[in-house]
């Protein structure tokens, strides 16, 4: 049983608290301190980004009620960042597994974790500030999430501690930040996009544990509204993925985009983004930063407006005499595109069905009207513009329209 354990500082990483325990224990041998902390589970990896059984192992060595495991996982590990895009119920299951010491890293995260020489990171100005306030420096949770490159508080670039074979080393030994050789010179040369991405990472991590993606996808809708829309015959509306990829490379460093999305955005990837099935927040965050969309809007259960649907809905409601060609002209779209959109929105056509050509059925009745040449020309032009093959067909349809309206109002 551990008799004493340090209280975590604000936003302190769980591993950092372990390091401070090590420091204050006065014991030099790392394995002995690991044994004290984890008991029979002394072989546990204690510095992974996604929390594991280490939290449960330490807390079960402490007298009951000293620390709240839930609080430790939510506020002292990046758990909420990595579980943010899960439905709330699934997140609770993941959390419960960790609290019970059954740790399973969600498989979608395995591939995305940084490998090689990625080590813990720090901000030189946070070190100064923390040392002043708390008497020692410590690792902050939000600095460790790989997508983040800037300390949001001080707007300077994060730096990485120097150790050999960091992944192995950090899991086996304690490297308290206050004992590490650190670069004290802040590097303020950061881009607006980098800062913005780091701010979003922090927001995704800090949102209340109950917040998950809503039923609507306002991020996707904003893409549609912002000119990344293409219209496809079969599926209706889609995102122009090549255009989006190019725009992302223009906004962020092309290298960053390549690291997060790969060489391009595949159709499957875009679908997973649209349906929130993409579980790592990184891709959403890069798109969101470029669109300058607030996190509140992304997680808002209220759908934002759809500018195309709004426009087409207004036209449908207005009613009156109109043809498909006219609607397409007003929307500056092709006729097949308007049809595809209507299918996508599950709306009924609200225009006159223009006959394709001269009717084959024998027509005996003849209707004549006399007009002067100027007016005839005007009628011809008008009927052509609306898509009628001749002025007579247009005239006939106008009369039908008036009669249909009259019948409708009589009902
Ligand atoms: Zn800082």
Q: Layout of helices and strands, plus pairs?
A:
Blueprint: H1 14-25, H2 30-38, H3 53-59, H4 69-76, H5 79-83, H6 88-99, H7 107-110, E1 121-122, H8 124-134, H9 141-144, E2 150-151, E3 156-157, E4 159-160, H10 166-172, H11 192-206, H12 218-225, E5 229-232, E6 236-239, H13 241-251, H14 254-261, H15 267-274, H16 282-291, H17 295-298, H18 307-318, H19 324-331, H20 335-344, H21 373-386, H22 391-410
Antiparallel strand pairs: 1-4, 2-3, 5-6
Helix pairs in contact: 11-16, 13-14, 21-22
The structure holds zinc ion.
Describe it.
By secondary structure, the chain is mainly alpha-helical. The chain folds into four domains: 14-179, no CATH class; 213-298, no CATH class; 306-351; 359-411. It has 22 helices and six strands. It has helices at residues 14-25, 30-38, 53-59, 69-76, 79-83, 88-99, 107-110, 124-134, 141-144, 166-172, 192-206, 218-225, 241-251, 254-261, 267-274, 282-291, 295-298, 307-318, 324-331, 335-344, 373-386, 391-410; strands at 121-122, 150-151, 156-157, 159-160, 229-232, 236-239. It starts with 13 loop residues before the first helix and ends with a helix. The chain binds zinc ion. The site of zinc ion (ZN) has 6 residues, from helix 8. The site of zinc ion has 6 residues, from helix 8.
């Amino acid at each position: 049983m551990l008799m004493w354990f340090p209280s975590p500082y604000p936003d302190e990483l769980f591993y950092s608290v372990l390091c401070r325990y090590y420091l204050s224990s006065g014991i030099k041998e790392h394995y002995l301190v690991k044994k004290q902390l984890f008991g029979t589970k002394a072989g546990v990896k204690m510095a992974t980004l996604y929390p594991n059984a280490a939290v449960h192992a330490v807390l079960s060595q402490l007298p009951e009620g000293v620390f709240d495991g839930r609080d430790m996982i939510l506020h002292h590990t990046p758990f909420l960042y990595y579980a943010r895009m899960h439905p709330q119920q699934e997140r609770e299951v993941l959390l419960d597994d960790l609290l019970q010491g059954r740790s399973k890293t969600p498989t979608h995260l395995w591939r995305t974790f940084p490998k090689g020489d990625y080590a813990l990171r720090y901000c030189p100005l946070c070190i100064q500030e923390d040392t002043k306030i708390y008497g020692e420096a410590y690792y902050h949770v939000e600095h460790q999430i790989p997508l983040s490159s800037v300390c949001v508080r001080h707007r300077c670039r994060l730096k990485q501690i120097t150790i050999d074979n960091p992944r192995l080393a950090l899991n086996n030994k304690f490297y308290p930040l206050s004992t590490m050789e650190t670069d004290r010179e802040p590097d303020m040369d950061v881009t607006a996009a980098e800062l913005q991405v780091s701010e979003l990472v922090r927001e995704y991590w800090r949102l209340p544990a109950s917040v998950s993606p809503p039923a609507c996808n306002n991020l996707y809708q904003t893409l549609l509204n912002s000119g990344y829309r293409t219209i496809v015959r079969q599926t209706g509306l889609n995102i122009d993925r090549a255009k989006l990829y190019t725009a992302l490379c223009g906004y962020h460093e092309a290298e960053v985009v390549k690291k997060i999305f790969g060489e391009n955005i595949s159709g499957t990837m875009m679908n997973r983004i649209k349906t929130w099935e993409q579980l790592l927040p990184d891709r959403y965050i890069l798109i969101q930063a470029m669109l300058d969309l607030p996190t509140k809007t992304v997680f808002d259960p209220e759908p934002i407006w759809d500018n195309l649907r709004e426009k087409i809905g207004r036209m449908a409601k207005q009613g009156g005499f109109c043809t498909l060609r006219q609607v397409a002209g007003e929307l500056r779209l092709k006729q097949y595109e308007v049809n595809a959109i209507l299918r996508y929105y599950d709306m009924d056509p609200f225009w006159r069905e223009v006959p394709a050509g001269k009717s084959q059925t024998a027509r005996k009745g003849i209707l004549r009207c006399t007009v002067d040449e100027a007016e005839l020309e005007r009628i011809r032009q008008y009927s052509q513009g609306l898509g009628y093959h001749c002025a007579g067909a247009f005239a006939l349809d106008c009369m039908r329209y008036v009669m249909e309206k009259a019948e409708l109002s009589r009902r």
